[in-house]
Amino acid sequence: MKMKRNILTVATLVVAFIFSGSSAVAQDFALWPVPDEAAAVENPVAPTKESLQSGKSLFDLQCKACHGESGKGDGLIKSADLTTPEFLAQTDGAIHYKIHQGRGVMPSFSTLPDEQLWDLVNYVRSLSMVRDSADLKDATVSIYFNDADGQRELTAKVEETNAEGQVVPVAGMKVNFAVKTHFEVGFLPIVAATDHYTNDNGTVTVAFDDTLIGDAKGVLHVVASIEDMDYAPAQVTEAVEWGKPNPEDYWTDRRALWKNNEYVPLWLLISFTVSALGIWLIIGYVALLARKIKLEGDRYENDVNT
Ligand code: HEC
Q1: pLDDT exceeds 90 at position 212
Q2: What is residue 154's DSSP assignment?
Q3: Per-residue model confidence as pLDDT tens digits over 115-132
């Protein structure tokens, strides 16, 4: 379901991107009427930290590309500014209605659970409040691997330094687990299905997926990152030999031409050598011709002089 949503969002983005050239001219959007009964709906979800946190996660995933990190409508696609006084003047019900319905480039999010829509309303409303990054607290995250009784588990521990200078655990912190993909640019979320929060000891433990494929030696780079509105982003990466060895670890080792000839496919070696030789032959031939021209010129000069 979530996957389908993401695909839909990406598809919308692509389509929107194609048409953004024509719509960029009209930067302000026409008034968006909301039925009275929709505008009158009361927000049943209080803007608690949990609600705002959930709203932020959703926003970063589904809305940020268009509306921008700060919600000013300065994302990839020109969209509505969600921080203006005019925007904030409308009721929660009206904002909910617009997210639910969508209009034009703005997709409909009617498939999201209603509670998540209200989380979004709460978060969007909080966007205009100045959030100074200097106010963010710092926490560190570390990963531990436990392999007792053949049950592989991953534990993340989140700690911070309190006012007295002591290192103390942080409870209730959302932790995301992922492995780095081969290209080192993407993260493949693992144990993603549910949210994981640290307990009173500042730790959260999850079962490890044994089916992940690592590099040639089975090494996986596991990433744990924290997600909390009051804390600056932090993450840690640790290597562990818990993946299935990948004999075809093409991307990391084999592809490098300069690394080791034994990894280079024969066809590549031959075609490379042939084309390199060919280029040098041409260069040599041109040099030869140049010399010939010069000799001819010298001879001509001699003939004229004598
Ligand atoms: C593909 C780009 C795109 C995405 C993704 C997107 N929006 Fe929008 N959004 C727009 C555009 C464009 C408008 C202006 C639409 C109009 O007025 O015709 C808009 C308008 C809005 C409005 C109404 C603004 C107003 O002035 O009343 C709200 C609220 C809103 N978006 C919230 C969200 C939320 C929340 C999400 C994520 C769940 C989201 N949008 C995702 C492009 C996008």
Answers
A1: no
A2: E
A3: 999 999 999 998 887 666
